[in-house]
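Submission sheet (multi-component)
Chains listed below:
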Amino acid sequence: MSWARRALAVAWKDLAVERRSKETLNALVFFSLLLLFVFQFTLGSDRERLAAVLPGVLWLGFVLSALLALGRTFLVEREHDCWEGLLLAPGDKSAIYLGKLVGNLALMLLVETLVLALFIVFFDIDLGRAMPGLLVVMLLGTLGLAAVGTLFAAMTANVRARELLFPVLLLPVQVPVLLATVKATEGLLLGEPLAAVAHWVKLLVAADTVYVIVSLLTFDVVLEG
Amino acid sequence: MVRTLGWLTAVGLLVGLVMAFGVAPREVTQGNVQRIMYVHVPLILASYVAFGVLALASIVYLVRRDAAADRVAHASGEVGVLFVGLGIATGSIWGKPTWGTWWTWDARLTSVAILFVMYLGYLLLRGSIDDPERAARYSAVLGIVAALDIPLVHFSVYWWRTLHQPPSLMKPGGFTGSTSILWPLLVNLLAFMLLYAYFVARRVRVLRAEAEAAA
Amino acid sequence: MIADNWGFVAAAYGLTALVLLLYWRRLAKRERELEALNQQPHAPRR
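Outcome: structure written.
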């Protein structure tokens, strides 16, 4: 089986499992709704304050959902004793990484779109011209989170205090992505064109490239045992 | 060998201390509190060296699977976190009387704080894995990811603090570079580099002994 | 005349000295423990 087809098979399997059980999706949806309510209670009344903190709050919601989704990405393998199966898989293990990455990306983007839609509706936000630029930033930012997140999820899958260690490892490393996405979103929501936040977008592209390449190269090492 | 290094370090630190208080002048704008610089700056710079060595040792380990490289990476990480933590603390103590605040989110402080948390995570990862071979492998991967992340952190934080924002308060580091300030600084820098090397050498020795004991 | 804030200087130098000393002592102690451990004959492996 070719490398690309193996990757696709992993992604397809994960998404099929998710579609049937909807465990992670349900958890993420409920979590997003909860975030929405909390933000409404604390910020909803003051329109100006809300507009000022919206980019940060939005990405906080995305990141927390990402932690939830990525933290569970190897849960199925762990719980059903399939971890050895991963280790024994023939050929380049990086195909597994790509498959997991694609699956995580799909799930995370789905939830982010949902959260964004909820925010627009419940906080009566007009995205207007910001939309295409915002989608680019969301895509790049989510790829950054998922790229390193999938690698670290594999690394922490079988260690003590996994639930605590995973975010502790991921978040400091992801600061460039968090800064870039929030500042770019801020600019876009203020009506600036995508060109005005180009440096942040370029940083995201650079970061994503580094993260994906390094993860592809080192995933084999992580799955050695 | 290590003993000689230890003695050299002790001498270096002593000379550095004497120079920091005897040779270095009383600073014009800040007063004597500026003398904190002679431990703060060497600690931070030595920690950068530590993290650089960690990155190199991680690569060497992944390529050659040499346990010695893993021990160097481990020891370097430990000393690096120790030094950068102390660097942040001394910087904060220096900042309180000069800036009026224990902390500020300017570019340099923010970057160093992120560095501290990242490599603290490195040590936590090592502590969470019982199997030494797996710990070595995973730590090496994390060490490489962290090292590659450093320029990204630097730029993102720098842009965050400088674009559309006027440069913030004067850092306590400003000085004209007269020799009576430069020499104490250089001596202390050398002393702390020696201290880093000495600590790493002894920590590696302990790690090797621990590996033998477990064998 | 600007205040000298010697208290802060003492705090910075004192903290540094203390922490470094404690780390050094921990290394020395661990070395002694391991030396004693490794000098005992190993239990036969099987």
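Remark: The interface with chain C takes residues 17, 29-33, 35-36, 39-40, 43, 82, 86, 89-90, 93-94, 96-97, 195, 199, 202-203, 205-206, 209-210, 212-213 of chain B (CB under 8 Å).
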